[in-house]
Design brief:
Elements lengths: L7 H16 L4 H8 L3 H8 L7 H10 L4 H5 L4
Length: about 80
């Protein structure tokens, strides 16, 4: 089994999250503030330097007003 972080489908999920952030006009710092995390957290997620766990993923989606199931569909 390949590492999740290098999986093509996981990369699509990250692109979806980053695109949603950009469409909403949010900077990495803006999103980080909503998540109560340092801005480097968002940067590391978006560059696949760090992997999101399930709880973090749901909170990330909530901060962006996204349906987490929509993103999960990108993984199937």
């Amino acid at each position: 089994m390949r590492k999740t972080i290098t999986n093509v489908k996981y990369q699509k999920l990250l692109e979806w999250l980053k695109s949603a952030r950009n469409k909403q006009g949010l900077s990495m710092r803006d999103l980080a503030a909503k998540l109560d995390e340092p801005h480097s957290f968002v940067g590391k997620i978006e560059t696949a330097e760090r992997r999101l766990d399930v709880r973090e993923y749901v909170e990330y989606c909530q901060a962006l007003n996204l349906d987490p199931l929509e993103g999960i569909s990108l993984l199937t």
